[in-house]
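User: what does the whole thing look like in 3D?
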Amino acid sequence: MWSYVIKRLLHMVPLLLGVSLLTFLLMALSPGNFFTALQQNPQVSPETVARLKAQFHLDQPWYVQYVFWFKNVLSGNFGYSMAYHIPATTLIVQRLWNTFLLSFAAMVVAWAVAVPLGVWAAVKKDSWVDHACSFIAFVGLSIPDVLLSLLALWFAAATGWFPVGGAQSPLYDFMPPAQQFWDRVHHLLLPALVLAASSLAGIMRQMRSNLLDTLRAEYVTAARARGLGEGWVVYKHALRNAINPLLTIFGYSLANLLSGAFIVENIMAWPGLGRLTMEAFFAKDSYLVVDSVVMATALLVAGNFIADLLLAWSDPRIRLK
Amino acid sequence: MNLLEIKNLKMDFGKDAGALRAIDDVSLAIGEGETVCLVGESGCGKTVTALSIGKLVPTPPAHYVDGEILLNGRDVLKMSSRQLREIRGGVVSYVFQEPGAALNPVFRIGNQIKESLKLHRPDLGAPGTASARSGMARHRAGAVPGAPSRRKALDAEVIRLLKLVGIPAPESRLRNYPFEMSGGMQQRVMIAMALASEPKLLVADEPTTALDVTIQAQILDLLSDLKQRLGMAILLITHNLGIVGDMADRVAVMYAGQIVELSPARELLRRPLHPYTRALMASVPKLRGDADRLSAIPGNVPRIGNFPPGCRFAPRCPMAKPECSSKNPDLVEVETGRFVRCPFWKTE
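Assistant: Here's the predicted 3D structure for the full assembly of 669 residues, as structure tokens:
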């Protein structure tokens, strides 16, 4: 088991190297750099710009930049943000926490709603409950995140019940702790719901069809034939088997949440990793871009890894000796 | 009183205009300790008849139109779900065709057997009922759930059952998952699970079809051995006439949702009366024969909802007469204990 974990972690290394290399290449292929705008400014002398560029190795070809970056990474230094003048890691850690908060809240909402609804729809197949759930799922799957984010912003602005964008109020630092907590929840609610809505529908449909499949399985008939009660048959024998495929989806949904968060963060002005990456990319703050992308990749891989571990824990057939 | 008495059972799939009759006027009795074989081609209604004994066919889509299923004198079709749960396992246990599909893949086999034990023998391991292990008698009161002595007693009982069905080193098998066992072993576990609740009737629905031939013989031997030792009745569903001779006291032959012949096994094998039974027997390949082709019954099994008018076998029957396709004959006792649904059974 442990050798498997270590092997999976080692597999991450070439992947992250490849992703970082590709990001550097793509950044180099796009025209201009962080100091291009500065160059246009007549008040700044060309010498100053050249000095700044040299300081960040931007006067070198991209692969030399990469080597410099990589050497620093080996000693634990992920480079500086040229725009913020602080280490990229400091920025990323701050923003990562926000993204994590958003994704986690969205995931909790999505799963807590989707799984019971899916089970309910399967057990009451073809009832009005089932049809209502199908309809909700249909709507949820059809509306893109972008539109839903905009609708949510409009809703917040029109009703005034929710803050329009941001993660905290301007006066956050002056609030007592309880009020601070409430302020964060208040800001989190709408983006989390928007982000949850898209994955909710998929999980619910999946849960329903999995459970319907396992309810038709012969071991379910066999369990009934032993005299077990219907509740025990459904919630122990059938549900336990229906959950397995969902654990795989859990890994993917983590990936989906991150990419979904990218869109939601940008539209709803949530200061997370996705928004940071976007800003850094437009500013051509290249080291920050690379670090953010590497971080996001690591999160994705970690999500899939967690899903695999969960699956092994839940299904004895694929448990590794 | 017979242990099981199915009387004029009629069951449809679907309702009203779209109803398809799957079981049509089936009557069958099984006495205590008797082995009855239900023989027929796929889709003739054997399995739904067997599942009906525990009312295990989901309703809807199934719909019982008429008739009754008396188990120990009580009509299963009229039972509440609570009463049903008591007879399922308690009176009638099932062994299914594919043990790999009938065992839940994610639970250890020991725990699956214990489910039946906890449900149907709550006295097991409870203080003051030391005899609970061997006796068929039940003392329902005084169970202490979760006590360590109870857990030990449950483990011991599972081991005894696994030993009973011939699983070697049962102590080490307790914590196995189904996928860690061979098909034959899985079927033995299914049988152990069926026996755990001490049923009076064991319904085995093609218990050997999914297994290799050598394992088939072992499982059948095990079943007849258990029957001798435990004195339970067996309803064995098969499409293999070879099994009938070894196992059955009586045989019911089903065709298109009806019983066409019901007879003591030995007499049926020696002298089948219904043309369908004769054709079935003729199509069993013989080891020493000069035929170079398999003899098969011409035509196809009629599909449910598409039965021919009159006798359902008439279109495929070698001795059909014109009147056969106008009236469906009744099942008539033509000799003592021998019932045939064909007026021309005397024709050679």
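In plain terms: Residues 107-176 of chain B form one domain. The two ends of chain B are 37 Å apart (CA to CA).
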